[in-house]
Amino acid sequence: MSTYERVADLPLTIDDYALEGLSATVSSGFERLTTVIRLRGAGEEGVGEDVTYEGALQLAQQEHGPALPLAGEWTFDGFAGHLAQTDQFPAGPPDREVYRNYRRWGFESAALDLALRQAGTSLAEALGRELRPVTFVVSSRMGDPPTIEPVASRLARYPSLRFKLDATPDWDQALIDGLIATGAVDSIDFKGTYKGTAVDTETDPDFYRRIAEAFPDAWLEDPDLEPDAAREALEPFEDRITWDAPIHSVDDILAAPVLPRTVNLKPSRFGSVKALFEGYDFCEERGMGAYGGGQYELGPGRGQIQYLAALFHPDAPNDIAPSGYDAIDPEPGLPESPLHPDPERTGFRRRS
Question: What DSSP state is assigned to residue 349?
Answer without folding.
Answer: -
